Amino acid sequence: MKDYKGLRLGLCCIFRKEPIKFRQITAKALLQSHREEQLLLLSDICLHNVKSLQKSLYFVAENEIGAFRILSPLFPRLTHPQVGYQLEDLPDMEIIRNGLEEIRSFRQDHDIRLSFHPDQFNVLSSYRDEVIRNTIRELEYQGMLAELVGAEVINIHTGGVYGDKESALNRLQKNIENLSDPVRSRLTLENDDVSYSPKDLLPVCESIGMPMVYDVHHHRCLPDGLSESEVTERVVSLWRSLGREPYFHISSPRNGWGGRATRPHADYIDPADFPSCWTGMTATVDVEAKAKELAVIKIKETLKS
DNA sequence: GCATGTCAAGTTGTG
DNA sequence: CACAACTTGACATGC
């Protein structure tokens, strides 16, 4: 049984070199077939993706990577209004469920931290009922999956401001209260690079006991007067007060810090971008870099020396 | 084979 | 005002 003390690095969703692929399908493609055929196709893809997730965890364990972010469309189009489905509808449902259970126990035995990061369409601060409804449906799907595979975190961004941040944050809090327990207990808020900084989110998170995922790259794109070590300290005590391990994100800009286009992610992490106050800490750091597993392994080596 | 356009969904900032 | 960016890629189509 692996037990991570100190920094635990996380891999996000997919691989660059390692031959582990996830399959996809669009609603448009599905709509060309009848329901029975759709479900056969979807079953194939879901089964393939569950096997790929198993392989991902084997790779992660072998390379002493401590966390893995599961890509959102693991079960593609599950909540789509026209072609959506339930696990029970899939012909291979039993093998799929067994696969998910195997993932859950492997994760536990190897102390691998699993997370979800729902897409940008999930906005709990929206003033539109339809957006909220769709968001909740998607979050509930990810919550159900999180239960099945033993994932601990469902991390989202706050979303829009709509010209009035305070009202938006109030709507966010109200909508969070109405989530089911599997979702609410896993939900985390991440600071973004255009609207919500740690200074905006920390008071909310601290008041409702919601952990905050600290993305230091976003913080550098959207400075708020708080220093990185100040934010780190508050984020850490927030997670610890909930008895959980803190969660950070790191990435490097593809085009350097000088120009305007700092947002796109680079292939690797520049060690100089890694906050010095994080080293030696017991925490998880997801590595958001385009070279994926290669970037995680590389920064891991660098941090060791 | 390989290059290219398309994919459910929201919001913001840029050109 | 259209479009890219966001965590980004995979797939279908056409040459």
UniProtKB/TrEMBL annotation:
Gene3D superfamilies: Divalent-metal-dependent TIM barrel enzymes (3.20.20.150). The keyword Hydrolase applies. Keywords: DNA damage, DNA excision, DNA repair, Endonuclease, Hydrolase, Nuclease. One of its GO terms (biological process) is nucleotide-excision repair. This is UV DNA damage repair endonuclease UvsE. It comes from Candidatus Desulfobia pelagia. The lineage of its organism: Bacteria, Pseudomonadati, Thermodesulfobacteriota, Desulfobulbia, Desulfobulbales. GO terms for molecular function: endonuclease activity; hydrolase activity. It holds the Pfam family UvdE.
